[in-house]
Structures are given as C-alpha cells and as structure tokens.
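Handout, page 2. Input:
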Amino acid sequence: MLHGHGVYQEEHEAFRRTVRAVVDKELRPFAADWEAREEFPRELFTRFGELGFLGLKYPEAYGGTAAGELYEAVLLEELGRCGSGGVAAGLAGQFTIATGPLHLFGTDAQKQRWLAPAIRGEKVGALGISEPDAGSDVAGLRTTARRDGDHYVVNGSKTYITNGVRADFVVLAVKTDPSRGHKGLSMLVVERGTPGFSVGRKLQKVGWRASDTAELFFEDCRVPAENLLGVENQGFSQIMGNFQWERLSLALGAVGAMDDMLETVLEHVKQRRAFGQTLAGFQVVRHKLADLYTARECARQLTYHALRLHVAGEYAVAQTSMAKKVATETCCRVADECLQLHGGAGYMMEYDIQRHWRDARLGPIGGGTSEVMNEIIAKQLGL
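Output:
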C-alpha cells in the first residue's frame, strides 16, 4: 500500500514486522473471545514484558530497553490492528499512562519498587485522574490528600480508570492544597490492599470491552508520604506533561485501526458481488474508498508531524491536540463508512467491523475530548 512515512527508519520497520507477527499470532485470533468475556488474560502483561514491549522508552537500569518513543509509536500503531480496542487500551495503558509519571518524576527507590516490576509485566498500573464530576477539567478534581504525620489521608473517588480493576498500583491525582486550584495538585502512588482503598464495579462500556475500566473509592485511605511523586503541589504540570504522549498514543492507535479497517474493506469490495459485478466495479464505491484512504493519509501525516516534533523535544501541544482530534474523528468516520460498505453483514456481531465501529467512538472522548482539544488549539492561537 501507499507508504513513505518519513518519520520511521528501517530499524523501526524491522521492529514493526516483529510486533505484527506477535499481534497476528498471539492477539488477533483471540480478540473476539476476549471481547465476549470482557477480559483479556493478565498473562499478556508478562508476555509483553518478556518481549521488552513495556519498557521501550525506559532506562535499562529498570529493565527497559531505552529504544525510544518511536519504537513505542510503532507498537501503538500495530496494537491498533489487533482486533480489539480493549486489548490495545489495556496493554498500552501500562506503558503510555501508568508508568510514564513514575519514569519522569519517581525517585530511584520508587522506580525500583513500581516501574521495574511494571516493565516486567509483573505489576499492573493505572493512572487515576478522571472523577465523576471532573474529567478533562483537572483543576476541578475533588479527591483530597491531607498530610498527617508520615502519611497522606486520601478521600474521594475516581472513575473511567483503565486497568483499575486489576491494578496493583494507581498513580493518583489528588488535591494536597484545595485552596490553590490547579496549583494545589499532587500525584501519589496508592497500592492495592491499602486500607480505605476499594475498587467499585467494573464499568460496562459500548466498546473497548476486553479492557477493565473501574470506579475507585478512597475513604480515609492512609498512604505513606514516601509515595508522593516528585514535589508536592507540582501535580498539574506532571499531569499535563503526560497528556501529550497519551494523546499521541490515541492518535497512533487510530491510525493503526484505520489501516486494519481499510485493508479489510478493500478485500470485501473486491469479492462481494451485487447486480452482476463486484462492489469495486461501482464507481461510487471506488470513489468512496479513494476518499477514505485520503482521509486516513491526512490523519496519518498530521499524527506523524506531531510525533516528529514531540520526539525532537519541541513543545508541540497544538499539533498534538490537532492530531488527536483529527485522527480519532477520522477513525470514527472510516469505521462508519466501512461498516456501511459491508451492508447487513456489517451490523452482525460476527464481523470485526462492528467492533472497530464501537471501539473507535471512544477516540474523540478519551484522553481529552475533541472539544477540549479545540480549546487547547484556540489558546495556542492566543484566543
């Protein structure tokens, strides 16, 4: 197919072939079953740890490979092709959002305790930011952490937390100084089994069904002060810094998902016959596919542009927000059109396209809605 990415080197494409072989053999054949069970095996974390996939951008001192973010970008794209948004989200959550803050802000002792076992896939992590009354509005968080001797006493709740049911630790956004708005936020690591920390129900979702998404509750939960990440009341910038990679990861996953859908639908229109010819014989179908491939390519190149800037260390918040918005919205449109091209079969649960369609819909919501992306872009314009 039409390639010429410009962002990846040959070593990245070699890594892509490795990842694709793993995805095709170890994930894809089981995706429908895991979706039906609403859970993928926990062993996938240790398997990805063995393969070195959970520590691509982390130092060798903690079991990472220090290969860099471009390798992780390739992994994210290929996970978008695994047939289950939930499997992709659960595995990617480990290396994109749960361990990122540990790597960036943790002490050596904290990294040995949580980052190293997470890179091995032995401990599952989650990032706890969203609350019932505050998602993208991070400054509006209500979960508090009051210092009491050598502990913080945490009260509040979180929701829509990926890997929250199975998490061995949660990197939690809390208000350590509620009087200071976004200047009073901190990040604490809370371990499973800490008294006062409980996991509520596993949430039922439209898509991403193989991933576990949880409500978390904290009632006078005493967390050792040594579990504070970085400096107290510096949490807002810590959270915002991690958002850039989370948003790029969602854009990259959307690009991979579109690749998978378009390859599938291309085969379908070549084989499916109607009115004496294949669907591909109709000009309207050919032009539809020309439009979809063009839209996908626009989303891909914008995403790669933001990725290039990010990897070069530039402050690319506007381009990242644009890429996240465009790639995830285009993915929804591609999924919808591909489902339509499958006709009645597209609406049947046995066809993967309906799952892509359901999974894609989270893209413009998760990790900051498209509306929030527009606000960020407008702010960069000085509005």
